[in-house]
């Protein structure tokens, strides 16, 4: 019902991460970032990619999180 709600998408991504639904988690977190960039979503995605061995993508999102305002 709310496909453009960045906060909701990020929370869904974090819930999927907790359940180890890696593909769905990354989809939700990427969708959240497409709506609105945020430090929290970048860090969550970086940790997810780190956990799944996608180190280049993890590094990219860690760098992006550093550029976000606090």
Description:
The protein has 70 residues and is mainly α. Helices cover 76% and strands 0% of the residues. It contains four helices and no strands. Helix 2 packs antiparallel against helix 3 and helix 3 packs antiparallel against helix 4. It starts with 5 loop residues before the first helix and ends with a helix. 26% of the residues are buried.
Topology:
Elements: H1 6-18, H2 22-35, H3 39-51, H4 55-67
Helix pairs in contact: 1-2, 1-3, 2-3, 3-4
Q: Quick one: how many beta strands?
A: 0
Percentage beta strand: under 5%
Describe the sheet with the most strands.
none
Secondary-structure element pattern, one letter each: HHHH
**Which spans of ≥5 residues are poorly predicted at pLDDT below 50?**
none
End-to-end separation: 29 Å
| Helicity level | over 70%
* Secondary structure tally, helices: 4
Comma- or semicolon-separated keywords:
70 residues; flat; mainly alpha; 4 helices
In short:
The chain is an all-alpha fold. It has 4 helices and no strands.
